[in-house]
Amino acid sequence: MTAQYDVVVKNRHVEGANIAVIAFESATATPLPNIAAGAHIDVHLPNGMIRQYSLCQDPNQHGIFRLGVLKDPASRGGSVSAFDDIQVGQQLQVSEPRNLFPLVQAEHTVLIGGGIGITPLITMAYQLANECASFELHYCGSSPEQCAFVDEIKNGLLAEFTQFHFKSEGASHRQFFESAIQYIKPESHIYTCGPVGFMDWVINLAQTQHFPENQIHKEYFQVEVETSGDAFEIVAERSGKIIMVNAEETILQALAKAGIEIEMSCEQGVCGTCMCDVIEGEPDHRDVYFTDEEKASNEQILVCCSRSKSARLVLDI
Ligand code: FES
User: How confident is the model at residue 222 (pLDDT cuts 50, 70, 90)?
Assistant: First the structure.
């Protein structure tokens, strides 16, 4: 079970068009743990939802968790509550940091962030700068006025390592990278985070330059996953229960109705929390968490979003 912390909002201010920069500190005598670059926390929002946010700070800053929250009125309500309802002094619960996007040692590291996807890369950049490692940070966005952390980067430790690519200033990151990619040393590791289309473009570009999969690192967030499809049956091996998953419900919802609770968090196929082992049957993977090889192996499934290609799926639950 993931450890939880009671925290209080120490600072909150708005940067860019609609990004709240929020810092939590412990609300109890238990100090917050140190963080690693790439880590995120689950935030129990005032409206009851749980959402993941990347930690965005110098990892040497102890005792706080800092996030950048983009308000997206088109989302399912998580980001609006996080932006509007989390104010200074508010107490809430967050999980311990978890890291699905760790930095690996490399001769050179290239960090490419789009919009609010810059947040985990800022933490990575601080860590690399602290270690005097070789790296570069690329911040792609619409304009400096729309984006957060621009002044902090320009006026601090990261300034000399950072290149901004703002559309409003006529800088096309596509043109830049399509030319620059050939000069990136082949042993470099590339990290990207941002909107799905942006990341797919970065990954594709790196692949066309023959960067191996283990040198391309990515973290998706806020993906819209299609969770509907034909009905099928789940067999919960440990209890022997047989549960029907209807066309418009997820496996997670069907299991909950049958009294089987699976730990979950993002409900978007992003975090991996709801992972279950598959004993028999062929999953229809809808997540962005597993690699293509992991999906092809069909050994595990994320039950918050994925479905079944076979009429029956036997799970080790
Ligand atoms: Fe996050 Fe399912 S709950 S992947």
Answer: low
